[in-house]
User: What shape does this take?
Amino acid sequence: MPTQALRFRKLLTLCNFDVAFSLNDIGCGYGALLDYIALYHPQSSIDYLGIDVSPAMVRSARKRRSGELIQFHRGRESPRPADYSIASGIFNVMLDQPIAVWERLIETTLLHLSATSRKGFAVNFVYQPAPGESARSGLYCANPLRWIEFCEKRLGSEVSIIDGYGMSEFTLLVRPSRDRHD
Assistant: This one.
């Protein structure tokens, strides 16, 4: 799917494919990110862990891909630290959850991503609708400033935003602050 490949390209902007690294893929589904990496970064050495809440998705992913450097885990969070973490689309469908509850879940997830990502993590969100437009029911739409500020102030991270790529969403690249490593 072209839109999914575009999302993966934006999220993976965070990673340095010139060196071996470890990657946690939160909300991995059936492992589509591995297909993208195999196509666009076939020479890369990546210790990959896909994490998903759905037992059926994890089973499907394990049937499609396996290997010494490819593992899958059922759960909401990564059981291990990695160089990078990616979370594609996991914050967008909140169904009938109240926004305050959903945003606490996002905060908890971002805290965990920060704690388990040595070099950084990337997430994406759907933009809030423009004035006069209405959001689709069950979809969480965000103001980027809300999450940039959270990551900078609460996580002490440096944040870059990628947007304007033809979809009504944005990607945040979140790296540990250089001050934390000096």
About this structure: The mean pLDDT is 93. Residues 99-116 form the longest helix (18 residues). The CA atoms of residues 37 and 93 lie 25 Å apart. The chain has one domain: 2-181.
